[in-house]
Amino acid sequence: MAFKITDLFEDLGVPGVVAGIGAVVAAPLLIPAAVKVGKPVAKAMVKGGIIFYEKGKGMISESGEVFEDIVAEAKAELAEQKNQAELEPAPNSEG
Q1: Is pLDDT of 28 > 80?
Q2: Do 48 and 57 form a contact (C-beta atoms < 8 A)?
Q3: Burial per residue of 72-88, b for 16 or more beta-carbon CB atoms within 10 angstroms, e otherwise
Q4: CA dihedral for 32, 33, 36, 40, sign (positive or negative)
């Protein structure tokens, strides 16, 4: 089956074909303008991502330090309780 230009007009209609031709003609003018506008936006997004990553990395390391401190305190309390239990005399079963 061969492609016919009349099929294109029937499928898309005259406004669709005109819009397509307009897009092809305007593309060389619009693409550089979009790149000029898009590049700073993309760069700002990348900068924001880097800042977010760095702050997140700092928060995670700080949270890890806090957790390590909590674990160390809990271990110290358990060791203290164990030492106190060993020092206390066992209750006599004599009544």
Answers
A1: no
A2: no
A3: eeeeeeeeeeeeeeeee
A4: negative
